[in-house]
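Researcher: If only I could read C-alpha cells as easily as an amino acid sequence. Walk me, if you will, through where the backbone shape changes along the chain. I have put the entry right below:
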Amino acid sequence: MTKPIIAIPMGDPAGIGPEIVLKALVSDEVKSSARCVVTGSREVFEQALNFTGIKLRVNVIAEPKDGDYSDGVMNLIEACGVDMSELKLGEISGMCGRAAYDCIAKSIELAMAGKVDAVATTPINKESLKAGSVDFIGHTEIFGALTNTPDPLTMFEVRGMRVFFLTRHVSLRKACDMVTRERIIDYVHRCKEALEKLGITDGTMAIAGLNPHSGEHGLFGNEEVDEVFPAVEELQKEGIAVVGPIGADSVFHMALQGRFNSVLSLYHDQGHIATKTLDFERTIAVTGGMPILRTSVDHGTAMDIAGKNIASPVSMVEAIILAAKYSPNFTGK
C-alpha cells in the first residue's frame, strides 16, 4: 500500500518546531509509515540543519506530487517569509507568529484540495500569534475557521486511550457552567461520529464526573444529578453506547484497561492531566469533526531550549505516525 502524504507546518520558527521536524524526518518510524511534505522557510530549516548536524537535502517543491520521497530528502514548500536577520531563537515575535500561521494555512489548503492525506502540526506560540495580528488563539481555532468547521472536537490519544473534551480554553468557572444536558448530548453524538470516521465503531464511551465522586447524588454538587445523568439516560434511550458519570479519579484508568473506547472529559485540565501524566511525550491531539485529519504534538514551543539541539522529537514522530494510521479513513486509500 502506498504510504500517505503528511503535511507538516514548520511551527513557530523561534521555537523547537523546525528542530523536532528534522529529527522526526530521519526517524525510522516516520520513514516507514509516511511520506512527508513540510511547509515553511528554507532558510529557517537550513539554520536548524546547521545546529542539529542532521544530514538532509532540502528539496524545494511547488506541489506534493513533485516531491522526492527517497531517504535523506526533506521536501519543502515555501509558505512564509522570515527575515533571518530579525529571527532570534527563543523570543516572542510577531514575524514568527505570522510565519507559523501562514505555514498552517498552506498545509490546510493542501489537505482541503486532497493533495496531502493529513496534517501533523508542530507547536505555535499564542503570544507570537497575537503580536503578528493573527486573530486566533491556537491551532484548533485556525483549523476550524479555514475548514469551515464552527466547533471542532479535540481528542487526545495515548497508549490506546482516547479522551474528548466538552470544554477547552475557558476558565474553570465558565467550564462548570457549560456542563449542560444539551451540550453533553450534542458532544456525544459528535464524538461518536468522529470515532466512526477514525474507524472505531465498537465499544462504549464514558462520561467523566465533574465533582468529587461524581457529586455523591448531590452531596458535593448538583451538576451530575441535574445535567449529566439526564443526558446519559436520554442518549441510552437513543441506543447510544454511553455510560456515566464515572468519577474522574477512576474513569481514565478504566479506559486505559480497555473498558471504554473513549472518555468525555468535562473540562480542559481534567483530561490533560490524565493523559499527560500517563505519557507526556506520546499524548497526541487529534482534531475531529473536520473534513480533513489533523494530529498534533501536545507540547509548546519550548522557547527556553530553542536552538540547543536538545528537544525530543518523540511527540512529533508519534503525531506523524498517528496521522498516517488514520488518514486512510479520510482519503479512502
The chain has 13 helices and twelve strands.
